Amino acid sequence: MRPDLANSYGQDRLPRYTSYPTAPHFSSSIRESDYRAWLKSLRSRQSASIYLHVPFCRSMCRYCGCHTSVTKRSEPIATYAAGLRTEADLVAEAIGQQLSISHVHFGGGTPTIMTPETFADLVGALRYSFLVLPGAEIAVEIDPRTLTEPMAEALGYCGVNRASLGIQSFDPLVQCAINRRQSFEQTAISVEWLRRAGVNRINFDLLYGLPLQTVASCQNTVARCLELRPARFSVFGYGHVPSFKKHQRKIDEASLPDSVARHLQAEAIAEALVDAGYVRIGLDHFALPDDNLALARRRGTLRRNFQGYTDDSADALIGLGASAIGRLPHGFVQNTVAIREYLARIIDDRLPTAKGYLLTTDDRFRAEIIERIMCDMSVDLSQILRLHGQDPESAIIDRARLDRLVADGVVIMDGDRLTVSDGAQFLVRSVASAFDAHLPRSEAPHTRAV
To answer: What confidence category does residue 376 fall into, taking pLDDT thresholds of 50, 70 and 90?
Structure first.
């Protein structure tokens, strides 16, 4: 562990690099007509994946950085699901042919807030509009506090084969501070229901850097999680941006750990998971050795998208739902955030495109460099520069940052090969940022580097 490096670099505000360029650089200059043209250019032989955003929860967790709202009623959710079904049909119609789908991901919010019947209708609509391949991964994010046994059974019936359960922390003091009271027993019964229904690929999501969190409480949470032996863990650092998410203002900033404490918490979790037989994947994921994510890491085919690390190698990502982001060979598109506006456009048979980004030649080669750094902790700059016909000297945007990282032992340069040093992987975002041409002029409220 390198607490000295956490102290030196931890306060930097940097993107998570789940895309490049990142979402703050999207512009309203990309319109529905652009998106329709991009969709029409897709070919059936191209692989694609689908992300569906369900922006509803039963209560608001104070740490949340997602676009979601609280509702106690089922009617708004059913109406929204009908909008998703219609949008799927509109997208398929714009493509003009049945696109093959290799991955489907339901994110939120809480997708399982839908009734079993509503969820089954939505999956049926997807299968009608697109060719969801027999071996496709169908994943859903779950709040164990609200999952019911009938819903777990519906997930299995609909072909869901991966479930990501939000855990964050089992420490009662932390749970109280973040307004998320969740017992181990609730989580265990959810896992039992899912496995009984045939949903055997289980992921757990943990957070560090939460208010009142300690190394000991992180270790205790991991120990309880290991009793249930999920296939994967996602371990994210809490991003405190109250200027962007007003509900985070309810968190007492004095109760938040500093960068060194956050680093120690993250490394304590990582050490416990590696000791338990999990493979460390990139910055913040862990997987059992036979999981697809670990296999992709060994093969050098690991990718990164808006859900984090993935083995999804599809050419296109179709985003459905309010605020959903899609990625096509041409660039990025994002739907309107407001649910009311989203539904109004859908009712009018319009795609709800709000903004996007047309990729340039420079963006494409920088995106590849950053993705390889984030996924492999290493990159052969000369190889990527040759593929894109770029000048080696043009690749590095922040030479001073990179030189400092080299001097501090974070980065090893061997000719044109860059490698993040062992023990310094937690600073991979800092390394990637040296190649980010958009960051110097960005005013986005990014999260802390550590």
So the answer is: very high
